[in-house]
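tool=predict chain=A
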Amino acid sequence: MITRRDFLKVTAAGSELTSLGSAAEVKAAMQILLRTKNSAMKVAQKKYKKRK
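tool=predict ok
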């Protein structure tokens, strides 16, 4: 789950990069960031479930 704070950071970074004219690169970078965050959260959830 992406928090509001993370969403704002990604949006600001994306807007800044888009203003430089590289929309395709921005899209690719954002996908990588979102996948990394989601996978990290899944690992943390699995570890938490194992502790219970």
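The chain has a mean pLDDT of 74. The two ends are 21 Å apart (CA to CA).
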